[in-house]
């Protein structure tokens, strides 16, 4: 019997699990729609990482994605499903992700090294 193709795992922080379940129940996507939305979300996150601001330049793509998932996993999946997983809409999702990361950066700025001339 051939193995059933699996859908990529959704790495959902615990505090977002309820929202993720609600989104999946609301959209009730079939396997193809969910796969397309996840693929769009992953590609948009990688593209947003590639264009990240200098203050986030030290983050690897994995770290960037973890921070994004922690901050807005349900919202990213929601928008990706709303966009139908359409690859032509990658810029829309990238812009959303960039906005999320800018908000995170504004709330939690990158610490600056302490020097002796600081009081």
Principal-axes shape call: elongated
Q: Count the helices. How many? A: 4
% residues in beta strands:
under 5%
Helix content: 55-70%
Task: From the structure above, extract its key features.
single chain, 119 residues, mainly alpha, 4 helices, elongated
What does this structure look like?
The chain is an all-alpha fold. α1 runs parallel beside α3. The model has no long low-confidence stretch (mean pLDDT 89). It has a domain of 79 residues. 24% of the residues are buried. The chain is elongated, with a radius of gyration of 17 Å. The termini are far apart.
List the topology elements.
Blueprint: H1 17-27, H2 31-50, H3 61-82, H4 90-107
Helix pairs in contact: 1-3, 2-3, 2-4, 3-4
Nutshell version of this structure?
The chain has 119 residues and is mainly α. Helices cover 60% and strands 0% of the residues.
